[in-house]
Amino acid sequence: MGKQETKPEKKPMRMVTSKMSIEETIEVLREDLKTNVRSKAWRKHILLNPKVEEMTRFPSGVDSVLINTPVMEWGVRFYTLSKQEWKQQTIDRCGQFYCLVPSNAGFHVYLFVTMDTGENVVFVFPPHFFIRYRERYWGKHSTLSGKILRKTYLKDNLVMRYGLQPGSEERVTGARIYGASSHGVALGIVLNDEAYLFKTFITYAMTKGEQIPLYMQERLSMERAQVEYYNTGRLADPVELEEHDRKRKEMLMAEERRREEEERRKAAEPGSPYFYVSGPLNLVQADEEILEENNGFWQRGTAMFSDSELIEESQREMLNLVSVEARILELKNTPQKKEEKKGVFKRLFGYFF
């Protein structure tokens, strides 16, 4: 009898957990993308050939699909510059792949793209980025949030032109970068040769201030025009784009005034449970916040916002809340005199219940 062949044991599949660092998460996602996602996406790519042959407008998005694996749910966006470019795409260069990964600070977005140079890189967008994106592009009263907000950004900003910020001469770990897209500019740092972390978002209107060097304003204007070409098939006039920004700002201000009038009207109704509070309610004024954030990203030697700090702060708040809840539960289950319980509650919360 011949020897029985033994199949090599499969390595156990690593899963993404909320305690993983960004670098560890990227490692797991890269393996999942290579093993489970690209082949399925390529089969979909082949099925889209007839659709691309019938298309007459380029550059253009072609289609979006969802691919589920044991590790993650992936979104795939197919895009082409021309019919010829579509035929030249390969299994390793056939779309943009993204996934929403939960963490202790909220959902991070991991976007895997193939650059013009052929390198495969990943862009990481933490929760703070989308807070700024919603406030600064859609307005502070926008109802967009969660997965819908993140997918809206990815859908409307399919093309991004990126480069080094002033003060960063080489693309090394820690160097500051920018990414210009349709809605505005993403600002962040280099994690390593193939990974970039975008920490915050500013609109193009915000790049016109004194904090941004003039030559950088001109570069961003050119980058934006190039992005619009990829989106619409024509190079946009900078004057036209500035007019678009002006109209959008007027629209957001009009929406703000409409909401204030609505709140005033409700508060003025007899017996209304509402009351109107005028004046700014933010502890930090918007202009001061913008100035602080822009300085942090555009001037050399200024400390930048750290995503790890946000995570640590969130973790501390959760631990404090858990400890208080555990203490309350312990007090409920322990027979004590009424006066003693009140004293403990006062120490915890600063007042009696």
Task: Describe what you observe in this structure.
- With 353 residues, the chain is α+β, with helices and mostly antiparallel strands.
- Among the domains are: 22-232, no CATH class; 316-349.
- It contains ten helices and nine strands.
- It has helices at residues 22-47, 49-54, 83-88, 127-138, 146-156, 214-232, 238-268, 286-298, 307-333, 338-349, and strands at residues 60-68, 73-80, 96-103, 106-114, 120-125, 161-164, 176-180, 185-192, 195-202.
- A nine-stranded mixed β-sheet has the order 1-2-3-4-5-9-8-7-6, with helices on both faces.
- It is globular, with a radius of gyration of 25 Å.
- The N and C termini lie far apart (82 Å).
Helix and strand topology:
Layout: H1 22-47, H2 49-54, E1 60-68, E2 73-80, H3 83-88, E3 96-103, E4 106-114, E5 120-125, H4 127-138, H5 146-156, E6 161-164, E7 176-180, E8 185-192, E9 195-202, H6 214-232, H7 238-268, H8 286-298, H9 307-333, H10 338-349
Parallel strand pairs: 5-9
Antiparallel strand pairs: 1-2, 2-3, 3-4, 4-5, 6-7, 7-8, 8-9
Report a brief summary of the structure.
The protein is an alpha+beta fold.
Percent strand: 15-25%
Strand order, sheet with most strands: 1-2-3-4-5-9-8-7-6
Shape: globular
Beta strand count = 9
**Overall pLDDT confidence:** 77
Based on the model shown, name its key terms.
10 helices; disordered C terminus; 18% strand; 353 residues; globular; nine-stranded mixed β-sheet; alpha+beta; 46% helix
